[in-house]
Design brief:
Residues 1-13 have a biased composition (Polar residues). With 328 residues, this protein is mainly alpha-helical. The protein contains twelve helices and no strands.
């Protein structure tokens, strides 16, 4: 029994004694009337029954999800630094080093003048027709010109290669691209370009000067029928002499020291080749060129093979030392 105030006689909660309500109780909406339509939510959303359970929430996984991988940057301040330096750019850098100082530019300007002057002087050094009586006598001036006419061009090359380690100019290049193989290939490309320019200039000067020098003393120019022979002597002789300069530059990591060794070695080699040609032919780097020009003091392929193996071995040793040389 309840009191008018809504409390039970024993202090308990009031109980409903009337008929059971119809339909579920919807919070904020009320119960539907008997037999009537279900109540409509004020916002037009059908009410959810009070007895309907909420959807299950999946338990969190014990393994954390991997962080998202950022997409590669297309631009930005670090895009240029992350790209690999193109090989033509490395070659242009080495060419720029070739003319980096005033002395380098002076030597490069004088090198062709000295080459042409030595070629003209040696070819016109004789006034007797008997000096050019045979084809071997006519190609001998070309052989001697190749040996001594390229010294200034070799001096520029020695300053480039040896000065890299003396002045530490190889450090920024290897910091920009750490591959020493690509660095050596860029320098080798510059060396080959110098060799090509020297060989072409030597050949052009010889083909212009030699016929006039031979004809000027009353002899017949015989090498006009054998131009391939002249080309071979000029190309091979220029290659072997520039490889000697490259070997000296790589072995001596000081530009002044390498130049001193080279300019002291060239006259000594020429002197020994004149005093003891049969002995010096076994170690002379120009022995293959002399054999091609039929001017070798020793017959047979022995001196040629020994000379080539010796200087190729020295060049390999120089390359090994440079590859392991510390930049600090």
């Amino acid at each position: 029994m309840t009191t008018p105030t809504g409390q039970g006689t024993n202090g308990q909660a009031p109980t409903w004694a009337g008929p059971a309500p119809q339909g579920p109780l919807v919070p904020g909406v009320g119960r539907p009337g008997p037999g009537g339509p279900p109540p409509v939510h004020p916002q037009g959303v059908p009410p959810v029954a009070a007895w309907q359970a909420p959807p299950p929430v999946p338990a969190p996984s014990s393994v954390p999800a991997p962080p998202p991988v950022p997409a590669p940057a297309v631009g930005g301040p670090f895009a240029a630094a992350s790209r690999r330096t193109p090989f033509p750019t490395l070659v242009l850098v080495e060419l720029r080093k070739l003319t980096g100082t005033l002395s380098d530019r002076i030597l490069l300007a004088l090198a062709p003048v000295v080459l042409v002057g030595v070629t003209v002087l040696i070819h016109t050094g004789s006034d007797y027709a008997s000096s050019y009586a045979s084809a071997a006598n006519q190609i001998a001036p070309t052989f001697y010109t190749v040996r001594v006419g390229h010294v200034l061009l070799h001096a520029v090359l020695i300053k480039l290669i040896a000065g890299e380690w003396q002045h530490r100019s190889a450090q920024p290049t290897l910091l920009a691209q750490p591959s020493r193989a690509r660095y050596f290939l860029a320098q080798a490309t510059v060396v080959l370009m110098l060799w090509f320019v020297a060989a072409v200039l030597q050949l052009a000067t010889t083909l212009i000067v030699a016929p006039g020098a031979v004809s000027g003393v009353g002899a017949t120019y015989l090498l006009g029928y054998r131009p391939g022979w002249v080309i071979g002597v000029c190309v091979l002789g220029s290659l072997l002499t520039i490889l000697v300069a490259l070997t000296v530059a790589m072995l001596v990591s000081n530009a002044a020291g390498a130049l001193a060794v080279y300019f002291a070695t060239v006259p000594v080699m020429l002197t020994i080749s004149g005093l003891a040609p049969q002995v010096f032919a076994w170690i002379d780097p120009s022995t293959p060129t002399a054999a091609l020009a039929t001017l070798a003091p020793v017959d047979g392929p022995g001196p040629v093979i020994v000379s080539l193996l010796l200087w190729i071995g020295l060049l390999g040793l120089a390359g090994y030392r440079v590859a392991r040389r510390d930049l600090a």
